[in-house]
Amino acid sequence: MAIVGEEIGRNYTSKATRNTMDTKYEINPEMQRRLDQWHYHRPNIGQPERFQTINNATRDLARLIMELTPPGRQQSIALTHLEDVRMRANSAIVLDEQSLNG
Predict the structure, then answer these.
(1) Helix, strand, or coil here: 75?
(2) Virtual CA dihedral for 61, 64, 70, 74, nearest 10 degrees?
């Protein structure tokens, strides 16, 4: 289990516990998996092209939303959700493939 405390500004001990305000919390595997998501993940072969395909498709849909809907709260929410879709799809390419490949 990798200890990532120094990289994200936390004080972790080598026994996989977290010290926060004199309270110790043990880092379980789920917590470690979530902490590992904040590391830089270098793209593998073929991933940048897939990122670009997703980015292009969501940008085209954003343009369509802005052209066909009036500016306002609902349009803003739609665009915000579209940004989330793009980020999560690109994250899936990196993080989910990483978990499948070991």
Answers:
(1) helix
(2) -10
